[in-house]
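Table S2 (continued). Query chain:
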Amino acid sequence: MQILNSVAFEMNAQEIQRRLGISADSEDWHNVQEIMQEMNKTIQAQAAYKPCYIQQKKNETVTIENINFSSKVLRKNLEEVQIIFPFVVSLGKNVDEMLKKKDDFIQQYYLDTIANVALQDLLQSLCAHLQSEYNIEQLSYMSPGSLQDWPIEQQRPLFMLLGNVEGEIGVRLAPSMLMHPSKSESGMFFPTEVTFFNCQLCPHANCPSRKAAYDEEKAREYGVL
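Corresponding output:
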């Protein structure tokens, strides 16, 4: 398992502003910028990943280092792939503490939105690192629990594959399969010619985190409709 401590990334202010629906010249945006500055001092960005080679592919399963992962979508995405990068990234426990200390509902909402965007920015920083380190032109990723086809219970084999994630970067997998600190994300990066987004297979409307439109034709192609 490879560890990246103090991962550098730039917080996407435009995306934060878009999700909050706040104009740049408003007093609210000034307050949000102050919270962003406070969070920047609080974040302890870390990442753990592991380059792995796929052992076996069956109809709806993929075997990696004798650990099985069950998902039709994952299996299809890895059809032409030999190497994958399971990962966990985290903003650190101090962000959770910061969230707990905010007793104002609006500030909690601002802080939670900022943290969610920062987590995605951290993920993109890891993606750029992997592309550079392994000379890969393009990567996509999937996360357990993001689609019904790959449920959150698949966190367990993912953490088994990576190793001692808690000991290395302090991210613990709870019996509920949720991660602590809460502002953490896990999944698998994989090389791809065409960028894949989980959102393309998810019909839920009005999702603030949506990165791509729902594609019914693609959902049929992947066998999840």
